[in-house]
Each structure stands twice: as structure tokens, then as C-alpha cells.
Design goal:
ten-stranded mixed beta sheet
Amino acid sequence: MMRLYDLLLRAYPPAFRDRFGEGMRHALASDLARARSRGRVAAAMFWLITIWQAASLGLSARRAERRQRPHKFSPIPTSRGTSMQTFFSIDWRDALRSLRATPVITAAAVLSLALGIGANTALFTIFNSLLLKTLPVREPQQLAVLDDGSWTYPIWEQVKARGTMFDGVFAWSNFGIDLAPSGATDMVAGAFVSGRTFEVLGVSAQLGRTITPDDDVRGGGPGGPVAVISHGLWQKRYAGAGDVVGKPISVNRVKYSIIGVTPPEFFGTEVGRNVEVMIPFGTEPLLRPSALDARSTWWLEIFARLKPGQSLADATSALRGLQPLIRTATLPQDWSDSEKASYLKEPLTIVSAATGRSALRSRFEEPLNVIMAVVGLVLLIACANIASLLVARAVSRRHELSLRLALGASRWRISRQLVAESALMSIAGGAIGLAFAYWGSRMLVRQLTTSATNVVFLDLHFDWRVLGFTALVALMTTTIFGLAPASGTMRIQPNEVLRERGRGVAGDARFGLRNVLVVIQVALSLALVVAAALFGRTLSGLTTRQLGFVPDPVLTISLNAGKTGVPKDQFGPLFDQVVDAVKAVPGVANVGASFTTPVGNAAWNTRLEVPGMPEASSMRPAPWVNTVTPDWFATYGMTIVDGRSIEATDRIGTPKVAVVNQTFATRYFPGRRAVGARFKVDREADDIEIVGVVADAVYRSLRADMAPTIFFAQDQQPAGRDLMLSVRAAGGSPGALTRSIADAIGRVNPLIAMTFRPLSDQIGASLVQERLVATLSGFFGALALMLAGLGLYGVTSHAVSRQRAEIGIRMALGARPAGIVAMVLRRTSWLVGIGVIAGAALSFWGATYLKTLLYGVQPRDLLTFVGAGAVLIAVGLVAAWLPARRAAKVEPTTALRSS
């Protein structure tokens, strides 16, 4: 850094370097040592200020030398022991005094900046955590993952057997873990891990030990099934007890032993998800029907640590050399010939995993970019507004600045002080903005959490990227709004001090600059209002969409009978008892059971064979499938439009039947009645008869069009250990039935695991992205309107104050107040009109980038553009009408006397 300062010193005249260079360098070294002792941030800020001051003074000195006249330097230390802070503090001291003299303008500017910088920093903090930060593991840049999603356990075994091609390999699979020993579930984020996972990641236990290959054997290692818990769970559930190692923990109703605690910074391999409990893959058969030998169950991720000097291309090449062996050994035998051929040919690829994997990243990356652009525009509007304020402030100080010039101050010295004032406001705004960002980023992440079982976790601690981004934004804002008043000093003449104060400013060209800034504010504000309106209409369209069912008051209950001890062939009778017990609960109107619930996390589709339609098996998208009990349609208020519903007589041993929706009937049986028709499901021999047609309803996504859907009879399918209950309350909130329903199910079998959730919450969770984007864009659109209104108000007030004499003469000659108001509004309307036209062009260009985030509205919707323009024009006219009305009430003699 001292070398950089030496280079800057060369810009100074030789006489200046010879006289003051050594003393300045010595004092700089002393001050830098003190700044470093206060931390990196203090040192960085010291250097930014120092280099800027040194460069500006050097240019000023060079300019004075070229003019061949003495340069008025500020006091400069001549002794080695004098601090350079005395030399560099003069501008900042004067700037601080000047800002204190106008507290209202200063406060408005700082608060505007704090909001703009804080919003940008908050969004960048989330952006940084979600997309840029590397995993908190050893040498994350060497971490890679087998691309294209999830893999089977047999594929993992093949890769593990050939793991010497890498520096280490491990497998990972996220899943939900129930910590409750019985009754209602207590869900936390969990994961299956292979034996060398922590070794390859380079993560050591904070307490105890981590999982080893000896633990990762089927059925559990020598010490039985073991688990490693997170630092957060250790603190929350065990109060940080030092004897937690060896204690039991219930994992999906199976007893495990805690062997270790991970470090506080470790959250797993998926960004956005904080894993609380990690268990070995070998213990998976203890928790559920095992998928360890299944060649068609895709459920885990395979990671590798590259060898020193090994590139991703080298790793991919090495893996593809062994691909024929891996693919052949894991080929699913029940697939068709075409599927087998595709499986054998599909190439294996290694990609970087330095920043981890993240479903949250893929979902929110585009919306986050849009919101970043929105808050960036808000900051530009704030800068334009502040620049307008500072230009007006500089005009009011013209007499003072002219006096300084007359007393010998250079124009550069005055400009430098004005820039210093802007820099002080940016620094203050940045500091307050950091506090706002700390709170705002955490608030936004909390909005992404949709339930206790879907908690979003992001590491939001400020790092060098966030601090650097904030410093850069503060520097840019200084440049944007600081140059406007500084540039005006070049036109000030020393003899203006001889004029009567307040005279001679009518032709100030900086008023034209303020007009330009207002036009920019209006244009950018219109773009934000258009975006906010489009996102608002998208959210409104989704929330008011006809679902085809009545979601409230319906309570959904996820049941799992895997640890009840009931034989598999008795799951059906057990769930029948549960349904009967829930029906008997007071306040329950209807109960239906199904494989999945509308807009749920689970989905199932299939291919068909329809007699007379050989192409049915290739039609895309394939129809959705659900299995339901007789009362399921009544529970959701869905109407049978033809035929009958599923009935209690549709059980195993009777001919298979199905109810289809209207879209299915129209698509597969055009021009004829679907009831009575038959079809076959892929890989099943039995025909299925359509006995009814139900009205269309949303299946999985509110954004998707109505898709063909089949509803099979639940009692004609083999009963599994999982079931979804849907309960319609007779009245009031469905959540009020939770306790009584849990008690009723517990009386049937206390070991049934159950998770409760109102259907309305489930549907609301599916709209979290749209709600967040609409809320933020609406807030910042309203803020942009307010800033644009303030800018127009300021320009109009300034114009009116400068035209007091003209207004007084007009009124003395008989002009009516209404005419004065109309005159002022007419001039302001030009600014608003130009800004609206420019903003419409900007919105028309940028709207296409929003297309994928919209629903039910076109990006260039005329009604939205017209409505946004009308709102902005109304705000502008109101902002201009207030000072115009005040001007029309001034007495002509008063206006002429004060002009």
C-alpha cells in the first residue's frame, strides 16, 4: 500500500514533494498502523479516504503550477511527528459543519441512502449466501459432484469401489427425521451419509466423533445405529450438555445413539437446508422398506474430492472410462429395451460442488436477480433525489461559495469540500444501511420458511464480499449525486459576492440539471410501478384462481404406520380404523384418505394404453394419478359431472375402476362419453373401467394448466405404510381439531406417526415466491413513487421561489390564483410527461425479462402500463399542486418586496 502512495505522490509538483513528501509518508505509516489495530474495516476506510485526498491534492497542485501562481494549500505539517490526519481532516471537518447547518436536508439524504444501500446490501447478502459462498469445509474448490441429480445406491457402490480415481468419495441423501418417540411428529432436517463423508469433507466433530465406515454397515455397526447431531440441535434440545455423547435419540421411532456434534458453521451439502441429524446409509433398512438394493430408486447424491492438480475435465474423463462397467452392473432389469439403451449411453459428468447443491438456489435465482434490479433502481432514484436536493442547497450557498473564491480559495478546493460532504452522507448511509441489511436479510429468509418441516437456513454473516459490496455502493452513490453540486462551482464567479444577495441566480443552469434529475426519477419510478403491478396481478391471479375444490376448512394429516408393529398386510384394516375414529370426532364433517393432497409435495403420473388410441402411451404430459376413498371428493367439495364416484364396494377382488377429470375425458375420448370406457396403466395387465367424471381441479401447481388426472379406488390398491387424511371441519378453524384428532388416532395405535397441516397453509406455501416478489416490488414501487413525488415537489417549490417577483407582477396585473396554479402545473406536467414517456419505453424493453415470473398477465399488458402512468401523473400533479397553491396565496406586495 505504501508503494501505491508513492506512485500517487509523483503527481505532486517537485517542489511540493521535496518539502512535504517525507513528512507525509512518515505520518501516513504511523496513522496506518493505528488504523490496522482497529480492524480491517477501519484500515480499508482509512486507505479509501487517504488515497482520494492524496490524488485530489496532487491534481490541484499540478493545476496551480501550470497557472504559475501560488496555490492556496491547506495547512500542511512540516514536522515528522505531526499527524497527517490534521492535514486530511480539514475538508471533512468543514463538510461536517456544513451538513450540520442543514439538518433536514442531511437527514433526508442519509435516510434515503440508508434505505437504498440497506436494501441492496440485504439482497446481496442473500445472493452471496445462496450463490457465491463456498461450503464451510476443507478446500471447497476441490469438491465435485456427479451431475444430473440423484442416483441409486447400487450406482454409489460401484463408484465407491472405484474411488481411487479421486482423493475420496462419499454419498449424501437428505430426508426428514421425526424425533418424537410417539404420537405427533417432531420433524427436523436429516440426512443419510456414507462412512467417509466427514473425512472427505474435512469436517471434524466439535464433540465426540463423526461417522466412520465401521458405522456404515447394514443394520448398524458394532455399537448399533449411531447418529451425529448439529451444533444447533445440541444447543436447543440438550442445552449444550457436555455428556450428550452416548445419549439416545429417537429417529423415526427407532433408537439411535449420539456419537458426536458437528461444528457450528457446518450445515450440510445443500445451501438453504440446515441438517440437524446425520445417520449412516447402512441403517436405512431400520427406518423404512429398504432402497439399498433397488436399481430404480433414485435418492442420493455422489460427491468426490479431486486429487491435487486434477481438473473437472480429468475427473469426468476418468469416470467415463469406467462408465460401461458402472452402468452395466446397475442396469434396472424391469425397464424396456429403449430405456435400457438410453441408460447405458447416458454420459456421467463431474461438476463443481464448491458452493454446494441447492433446490432453493434453482427456485429463487431468477426472482432474486429481478429484485436486485428493482432495489438497484430504487437506489438510483434515491441518488437522483439527493442530487436534486444538493443542487438546490448549492444554489442557496452560491453567495458563500462566491465569497470563498473572492478570498482566494480555488475552485478545486471548493468542489473537493462538496464531494467530501457527499462522501460523509454516503458513509453515514452505508453504516445505517448495514444495520438495516442485517435485519432485512434475516426477515426475508424467514418469509421463505413455509412450515416447521421446511425451515430455510442461510448463512447471512457479513463477509468480505458483503462489506466490499456496501463500500462500492457507497462510493458509487458519492460519485452519482456528489458530482452534481460540485460541477456547478466551475460556473461561480468571485464578483457575484458584490451583487445583492439572492440576485443573479435566475439563470442558474443547475435548475435545468434538477429538471433532468426529476425526469430520471419519474422514468425509473414508472418502470418500478409497472413491475410491481405485473407481479401484484400475478399474485392476485394465482390466489383467486378457481381451484376446483374448496381448501378451507380442510386439515391434512400425514400418517405413517411403519413403526406400529402391525404386519404389512394389516395396514389397510388399521387405516380403516383410523378413518372411522376420526369421523367420530365432534366437529368433523367429512374424512377422505388419499395418496396425495392437492398442491402437495408428492406426485404420481403414469402412461396409458387406450383401446383404439395406440398413441396414448406417448402423449405428453402423462396423466397425474391419485388414489382416494369414497368420501374424498365430498371432503374437497369436488363435483361428479358424469357417472358415479368411488364407492365402498370398490375393493380388492372387484373389477378395477377409476374416476377421471374432464380434461382426461376430453383428451383421451374426444367426441364420445368417457364413462364405461376402459384403459390400461403402464405395465399392468388388468383393464380399468371409468365409472365417473369429476370436475377439473388443480393437482400439484397453481401455475400449471388443468392436466388429465385419474383417481383410483384406494381400497383396490395394496395398502402401504403411508397415507394422507383430509378432514373437513364442520365449522371454525380446522387447526382446532388437531388435539382431538390426535387423541382419536392415538387410541387406535399410539405408534402411528402423524403430521398436521391446514390445507390453506399448504396452498399458501406454494405461493411463497410470488408473494415475496409481489410484496418487495410493491414496497419499493411505492417508495419510488414517494421519492419521485418529493423530487417534483422540490423542483416546483424551488421554481416558485425563484419566480416570486414574476408571480407578484402577474397577480398585481389581475391574474387569478387559479391561473397561477395552472401556470405552475403546466410547467411541471412537461417534466412528468417526458419522464412517463421515457419510463414507458424502459418498461416496454425490460418487461420481457419478467415473462417467466408472471401468470395470467402479459409482460407488456396495456392496462398495466396505462394504470401505472396514470398513478405517476397523479402523484406528480399532487406534488406540484401543493407549492403552486401556496404561491397563489401570496400577496403581490409581499412577493415584490422579498424578491
